[in-house]
Design brief:
Four Helix Bundle (Hemerythrin (Met), subunit A); 10 helices; binds 5-S-methyl-1-O-phosphono-5-thio-D-ribulose
Length: 368
């Protein structure tokens, strides 16, 4: 999307590849909204660390970053031996896949690359790897545009939308999943309002979604995570649109940022439509139960402390909790299908219980 920075507007993707230097280029998301900066990772280990440290975050964005990381890993291999190449790629794959365990996009992206490279010479696989990573990134953009076209119809003049965390363009390569319908509605001159959940502990809603919407001139308010029930009760929210880090194709269960389940329960209680947006790369066709999804538990420091910028512009972390207390920090939760009105995909809106039945349309591939 377009970023206005230092008085100039320029179109950016969240992640892209610098072929000349074999480097991945990333928007440094931890500094937003206060500073806009591009950083590079020189090898797959640095790329994996950037995913782990959340320089880049969001399912589609880390999917593309992992894909580029795998291409970086392929490039550095010396020699022609297929067996040693495959051993090397397995190590690269495992390093990148373990950086963030919950989102399925990195795994889907890298698995499909490895499958497509099978049977080729080492030289061919090395050149194929980058082309396949670029393809994943381009597909991610096209999927999000498709979600925008389909989901935009849910937003009318005057609609008040609630969203959680950041399933915006920063969480993908471009456009976003939950925000794509908003960007399409804005392009059609619809006038609507968005409530962004703050999304503690890392505040992706307050920092990233709000920044994106402000860049696009979309009317919005940041709300504390606990305020949505009250607003629903007073009739101030018409529609909920969220993203997902992993949606189970067999059961319709949706993993998303911690707090999503709470919003879904509240929406059901107040008869407010609750939609989940997903590109096809976010579907996990293997797992048979939400209980099998690895839920990342991040550092308790994220709960006990908060990052911010002082009035003089200094970025700092401050203690916000009782110093002798411990904390739990599960980063994602699972919303069951009965709380979900529909899953917006680039190929249509589906009842969450009908994903498996529609698997052919939704890109299910037995061989993946
Ligand atoms: O921990 P994050 O910021 O990487 O979490 C991912 C998310 O931003 C959300 O869960 C989002 O709603 C889905 S990602 C498209």
């Amino acid at each position: 999307m377009k970023v206005t920075h230092n008085g100039k507007s320029k179109h950016y993707r969240t992640v892209w590849f610098d072929k000349t230097n074999n480097q991945v280029q990333l928007i440094e998301q931890r500094l937003l909204p206060h500073q806009f900066k591009i950083v590079s990772t020189k090898n797959y280990v640095e790329t994996s660390q950037a995913i782990k440290d959340m320089v880049v975050r969001g399912a589609g964005a880390i999917g593309a970053t992992a894909a580029y990381g795998l291409a970086q890993g392929a490039q550095i291999f010396q020699g022609n031996g297929i067996k040693t190449f495959e051993k090397h790629i397995t190590k690269v794959y495992r390093t990148l896949a373990s950086a963030r365990p919950t989102a399925i996009d990195p795994i889907n992206a890298m698995r499909s690359m490895v499958t497509k490279m099978a049977g080729q010479t080492v030289a061919t696989r090395k050149s194929q790897a980058l082309a396949l990573a670029e393809q994943f990134a381009d597909d991610d953009v096209a999927y999000c545009q498709g979600i925008g076209r389909i989901g935009e119809k849910l937003i009318q003049n005057g609609t008040r939308v609630l969203t959680h965390c950041n399933a915006g363009w920063l969480a993908f390569v471009d456009y976003g999943s939950a925000t794509a319908p908003m960007y399409s509605a804005q392009a059609r001159n619809k006038k609507f309002h968005v409530f962004c959940d703050e999304t503690r502990p890392r505040s992706q809603g307050a920092a990233l979604t709000a920044w994106e919407l402000a860049q696009e001139g979309i009317s919005h308010d940041i709300i504390a995570d606990n305020a949505s029930g009250h607003l629903m009760q007073r009739g101030e929210i018409d529609l909920v649109i969220v993203g997902s880090d992993r949606t189970l194709g067999r059961t319709g269960e949706v993993t998303n940022k911690i707090g999503t389940y709470t919003k879904a329960v509240l929406a059901k209680r107040h008869n407010i439509p609750f939609y989940v947006t997903i590109p096809l790369s976010t579907i996990d066709w293997k797992l048979k139960s939400g209980l099998e999804i690895p839920i990342e538990e991040r550092s308790s420091e994220e709960v006990l402390r908060a990052w911010g910028v002082t009035d003089s512009g200094r970025r700092q972390s401050v203690s916000i909790a009782n110093p002798s207390s411990t904390a739990r920090n599960p980063s994602f939760d699972v919303t069951p299908p009965e709380l979900i009105t529909g899953i917006i995909t680039p190929v249509g809106i589906f009842n969450p219980n009908q994903l498996w039945k529609n698997r052919a349309k939704l890109g299910y591939n037995n061989k993946k």
